[in-house]
Design a protein that fits this description.
7-stranded parallel beta sheet
Length: 655
Amino acid sequence: MSLEEARAQYASALKAGRKAYKENIHRGRYPYLQDLDEILEGCTIAGQMGLGLIEIPTEMIAGTKTKGRTSAFASNFMPLLSENSEFGTKWMQLCAAHLSDEGIREPVRCYEYLGRFYVQEGNKRVSVLKSYGAPSIPGYVTRLIPEYSDDYEIQRYYEFMDYYQKTKLYQVRFSRPGSFPKLQAALGYEADHVWTTEEQRNFCSGFYNFSRALEKLKDENLSVTRADVLLVWLLVYPFDSLKYMPQAELLSTLQTIWQDVKALDKGGPIEVNTDDEETEDSRSFMEKLKATVFPTRLKIAFVHELRPENSNWTKAHEEGRRKMEACMGDKVETMVYMGVGKGDIAEYAMEDAANRGAQVIFTTTAPLIAQCRKFAAQHPNVKVLNCSVAMAYTGVRTFYSRIYEGKFISGAIAGAMSRNDHIGYLASYPIFGVPAGINAFALGAQLTNPRARIDLKWSCVPGKPLDELKAKGLDVVSTLDIPVPGWEEGDWGTFRVLPDGSTELLASPYWDWGTFYIKLVKSILDGSWDSLNSSKDSEHAVNYWWGIASGVIGIEYSDAIPPGVKALALILQDCITNDSIRPFHRPVKSQDGTVRNDGSKYFTHEEILNMDWLCDNVDGYIPPFEELNEKGQNIARVQGIYRDDIIPEKEGVIL
């Protein structure tokens, strides 16, 4: 009976093999198994390592070691020769053994190269077991280690070899460097945790269920791996739920994060929106539809990580909320959640807001992005925004401002007001946009004083950096910007140090969050919000990054500025507003001597946002992660310019 079943199985496998052969020929691809000896021609092998007997994932068996038997198999390892051939007879005998009590017991022998397996002994065994859909095959494996190089695939493989020592799993392959530490953290492990046999089994069981559901959403145009998708999924759902979640529910959860998967595949594209204006035609069109399509009143929740009495940042956003309420009147109803932290309480606050009918939720600090991401996936009808930048999540829009434009003007004032050539600068954190602010300030100072040099310190490192700048005898220092116009407490903005040691504010950029909230809410009410996502399947995350022209960035000028200097500053402000001056459209050289701009180039918004270098007239450096204080490290993990190089914490935000 088993021989008859084996003959039927061969007929089915032969059909699958010939189909694969024809499809490959039609698409201009090699129709047979890959030949490792041919792949290795011209490659340098640094060494080899015996891995012993392991369970080889069948999907990762790519071909044979030598060319001898390649033409007997299609690229999917299914047979191509007729059942009456000697090959067919032996294949069916193996198949009959597989169906009997005896089974196929002898392990195959393979070579592994760059994560793929090539069979030296046991090609027909692999073919039989693949035809039955066996998830893995036992085999003795020899790893061939390529010579290290700058090649992206080689670097990924070396990273894989490192974490293979911890997991002993081949199923987990990432397309992006640095992903494995994120998986360790998402699973609740430390970065150097070595998996136990039980942990390997639990993971493989959950990952198998995940892969089954993922197969139903398979998109051949995507280059991301299953492990890449799992990482995105784990931002929202716990791994343990894979043990009991039905396939239909799992498929539904995958659909909630699928746009983020597509964005990841395209390199995490972010649509940087720098213009809040609409054309007259679009406004006219929107007005015609407004009464019948778009809401006339919005319920809006504001979720603050900290309380305003403990955070000037929160205080500024609360000022903005009140300004928006005063302007919008009965078109808006707001609810406020104060001091929620960045854990379970924040999640509860957002759920409570949704239960109370919130249609829009603003979260005002970057560490809340994880809670936003989870909430947005589960509440696609609520518009969620987070005050941060460079977050490639399609379900959460982020907002910040081009504060560097104001820094450029502050720098010009500082250069004109300083009695010497050295100006102090206290930066906040090494996060996206901050180096651009430092550089814009340095270029502004250079505009009015070609000899100006910027003495850079950071508020996020241990010590008293502001006192250190004052102790150097510098007469002009720029520090953290005033939260709102009219602010008079402490040393803020760009100030002059007077002979008696007291300080006098000269100028400071400020965020006018009220103007931002008003414009954003109006965009929802008139429908222009949806114009940034022209289709439901948009694969872009949206980041609002508005500047002086929008009114979201303003500048406070004090009476201590001489009339001529203030006139120059106002001219610069007008020119930035009408786009006739851009701070970085000039010759720019970085500290290492690299010419970043010969004066003819316009930096893109992405280039400005992602600056990780300093101008050559800046004395100082960007502090590495290890030098930051605890608060600085927490912020850098989420928004740091080097965040992808930081090993995640298992209790932290996994981006």
